[in-house]
Automatic annotation (TrEMBL):
Subcellular location, record wording: Cell inner membrane
Any GO CC annotation of this UniProt entry: plasma membrane
Protein topology in the membrane: Multi-pass membrane protein
Name of the molecule in the record: Inner membrane-spanning protein YciB
Signal peptide: none
Principal subcellular localization: membrane
Described function: Plays a role in cell envelope biogenesis, maintenance of cell envelope integrity and membrane homeostasis.
Entry keyword set: Cell inner membrane, Cell membrane, Membrane, Transmembrane, Transmembrane helix
Domain of life: Bacteria
Family: Belongs to the YciB family.
Transmembrane segments: 12-29, 41-65, 72-90, 102-124, 136-154, 166-185
């Protein structure tokens, strides 16, 4: 399927909408308990059960409209289905809380494997967004690898030591802010190793 451009606002809505919806629904239902089929489920599990199909639908819509999905998007939605499904099926929120850890470990591990081979796999994903010299890509990939492994550790610490509500805030805002801040701090690297291909 050929890659197609869509309205940036629509693209952002499809990518971020399910996460925002999860957060709002959790705040609304967090203190409620639902009895379904004779089993009690707390609000977090019920919201997770709704989030999984919404995320799948949004990702499918994004693929249908743009004709493409990144490997990161594919892996993310697969892990959401698997671990969200396990949380609902086993009525255990720990599986869903572990999902970000696995996502960051997988991506950090893949990038680290590429570095061991002397390659920047990050370049294959982001080259069109940030034209850099080879040295710049290797430095950025090392930094992103360490950063992802750090996020995996942070997620483990938060969900294992704090309340579910604290984890939801951390997942919705903390991880997003950390990603934004990280790339904002790479400005010096982009200026030093940028190829200038995107100046026009």
């Amino acid at each position: 399927m050929a890659k197609r451009d869509i309205n940036p606002m629509l693209k952002s809505a499809l990518e971020l909408g399910p996460i925002v919806a999860f957060f709002v629904a959790y705040l609304w239902l967090k203190d409620r308990v639902f009895t379904i089929g004779g089993t009690e489920y707390d609000g977090f599990i019920v919201v997770t059960a709704g989030f999984v199909p919404v995320m799948v639908a949004a990702t499918a819509a994004l693929w249908a409209l743009t004709g493409t999905l990144s490997r990161m998007q594919v892996v993310t939605v697969v892990l959401i289905v698997v671990f969200g499904g396990l949380s609902v099926w086993l009525n255990d929120d720990r599986f869903f809380k572990m999902k970000p850890t696995l996502i960051y470990l997988i991506f950090g591990g893949v990038l680290g494997f590429g570095l061991l081979r002397g390659q920047s796999y990050l370049r294959y994903v982001m080259e069109g967004l940030m034209p850099l010299e080879e040295t710049g890509w290797m430095i950025l990939t090392r930094r992103v690898t360490i950063f992802f492994l750090g996020l995996a550790l942070a997620n483990e610490v938060v969900w294992r030591t704090m309340s579910t509500e604290a984890w939801v805030y951390f997942k919705t805002f903390g991880l997003t802010a950390a990603l934004f801040a990280f790339f904002l701090c790479q400005g010096g690297l982009f200026r030093r190793y940028g190829t200038g291909e995107d100046e026009a």
